[in-house]
Structure of ATPase AAA-type core domain-containing protein:
Amino acid sequence: MIAAIANFLNYDIYNLELTTVKDNSELIKLLLETTGKSIIVIEDIDCSLDLTGQRKSKKKENSEDESDSDDDSGGKSNNIVSKSLKEKEKENKSDSRVTLSGLLNFIDGIWSACGGERIIVFTTNYVDKLDPALIRRGRMDMHIEMSYCCFEAFKVLAKNYLDIEEHSLFGRVKELLAEIKMTPANVAENLLPKSVEDSEEKCLRNLVEALEKIKEEEDGKLKIEKKEKQWQWIKSVLG
């Protein structure tokens, strides 16, 4: 999607790895070195840096410090050892000193307005883990969920990969996609002809078989869970 946007707008793409950025000043410097019409991509923002838990971690550290001071002298040596281990873990985790405040200024602070028709794109698999200040409306103008494949998306893929708009198997695919969760990438993989001899019929049947296999597995799991609940109920009744 990012490549399609860049091609359509004729923008440059910059892939920014936050873990390699030393501090907030270097982050701003990198921003100023990008071209005006560009897309800046920060992939897996929830994994790039521990920005999401900075506020909570500070509160936790303060509470730990208070609890350590309340301990008796006999436990002081253990506290010192555990504290030093925690400090080493923090140092080993990342050498970057980029803060949440620095990243927010990078996105929509005064420096972000310099020379700019830039688009900043964050990707994440865990949007709930991100700090609300990072993804609020007005800062992140659009939230796009790359969800599972629906029937309308399947028709686009069928047109792109097989050059067909209608087929007798479309009805079965529609039924299965309404029940089964499959990503567009997996759908495309099944639709993609593996050889020149593969017909549209064979590719569609490959997709149907893959969906039916997932359905069987999920139905089997549901049956096992149902039996386990029944056994638990019987055990509770028998006492």
Notes: Residues 47 and 68 are 30 Å apart (CA to CA). The chain has eleven helices and three strands. The mean pLDDT is 80. The longest strand covers residues 38-42.
